Amino acid sequence: MVIVTYRNEDFARLFQTIKLFWNPSKCNPQTKMELIAIRRFTSQLQRLLVSATLISVLVIILFPLLQNTIPTGIWTMEGHAMLYRFVLIEQITVIPFCSFSICLLDYMYLGFCAEIVIQFRILSQTLQELKEEGNTVHEVDIHRLNKIKSCVTHHRIILQFVKKFRQAFSLVLLIEFVMDGPLICAELLAAFER
């Protein structure tokens, strides 16, 4: 969460850059439908994952109430009352909130990746459909040059977005995996020792 707060400006820049992206309406109907299908699938997948995360957080919170025991795992330290209370409070309140926040970052990551794919598809479709419009050779050349300039500008915007995207998410994902890996291994070790 600290990293997300630290990288808050990077995420704001990402959302500002998305406003500069092209709309799928620039493409032919078949490509437009494919791109809309990609966005729809990504949106449905994000909704499904948010629902699954909410259900799992509710189960984590409600399970101790129904079982009359608290699932503290290996982190109980029952001989130390103060540390034991701290761990209980952390596991019941902080961990579900943090896991939900991390999952939301993953959903944003998924959405941004889909948007990058969509923008490159729009760009390639636009380049494939360069037409000769105009009455004279000079008008045709000017029109084609303007279209190519537009495509190059859009390509630069996409590359800037990818660079900002990597900067914003690289540290977050690195710390997520560096912290989750050892914790998962420790929990598995404790589960198999019993």
Key features of this structure:
mainly alpha, 0% strand, 194 residues
Structural commentary:
The chain has 194 residues and is an all-alpha fold. It has 5 helices and no strands. Helix 2 runs antiparallel to helix 5, helix 3 (29-67) packs antiparallel against helix 4 and helix 4 packs antiparallel against helix 5. The longest helix has 57 residues, at 137-193. 8% of the residues are buried. GO terms for molecular function: odorant binding; olfactory receptor activity. It is a multi-pass membrane protein.
Major sheet characteristics: none
Shape estimate: elongated
* Share of residues in strands: under 5%
Following the backbone from N to C, one meets helices and strands in this order, namely HHHHH
Helix tally?
A: 5
User: Helical percent range?
Assistant: over 70%
Topology, element by element:
Layout (H helix, E strand, L loop, with lengths): L1 H5 L1 H11 L10 H39 L13 H48 L8 H57 L1
What's a concise summary of this model?
With 194 residues, the protein is an all-alpha fold.
